[in-house]
Design a protein that fits this description.
The chain is an alpha/beta fold. It is built from eight helices and ten strands.
Length: 237
Amino acid sequence: MVDASSLLKVRDITTAYDKTQVLFGVDLDVRAESLTCLMGHNGAGKTSLMNTIMGIMPATGGDVQFEDEIITGLSPSARVKRGLAYVPQGREGFPHLTVMENLEVVLDATSHREKSAIDDALDLFPRLVPILERPSGFLSGGQKQQLAIARALITRPKLMVLDEPTEGIQPSIILEIEKAITEINQSRGMSILLVEQYVEFAVRLADNYIVMEAGEVTKRGQTADLDAEAARGLLAV
Ligand SMILES: Nc1ncnc2c1ncn2[C@@H]1O[C@H](COP(=O)(O)OP(=O)(O)O)[C@@H](O)[C@H]1O
Ligand SMILES: [Mg+2]
């Protein structure tokens, strides 16, 4: 199970809300330049796992390793400095700031401060360009999600973690988001850990998949080994 070429290694992670344990010994690997998809029904523990990987929820046991460094005890901002970026579920950014200001706030917090990072992010989301001066609170759900991904890209991460980027978003925008995630992974070589309940989308994009149920990993494998029927069966109970 231990894989030396993995960028991210999650080992035997447990976590809890107060005394209620929600993760029970999760192992997960994201190889460099791969796209790994995490699937599972509502309440399976996907967001709790992402929050533990990012340091937003403390692990009660186990370890998170990134590029051969144990990062389990690091703050979220220290993890971002190491090269992790997070697009949380349902995230809004700063609704009173314009689209451009939302991007600039992130740029100001990076160590590289390269303005070209904003152009590189906008290249993927041309729909945001005509609305750069609009307060982000007025954006549609799809535009907000595109802005959230653009914000994460500004840090020039090695690994981007996305939690259900297609949730509640209209199908035409889902295709645009899918295209952008593919581009980020394939042309820019960035590793991606994608939480997704939309199985067709997950299987089209991902190299590897993991399925969680009730705080445990119950299935894992390579999407190339799945036929359409097996893919549909992944989330069947
Ligand atoms: N803030 C919270 N306080 C207490 N329990 C929570 C909280 N957030 C989630 N949970 C519980 O933790 C479990 C896992 O939730 P979550 O990680 O959000 O799952 P998923 O992202 O797969 O839908 C669920 O049983 C959920 O009810
Ligand atoms: Mg969730």
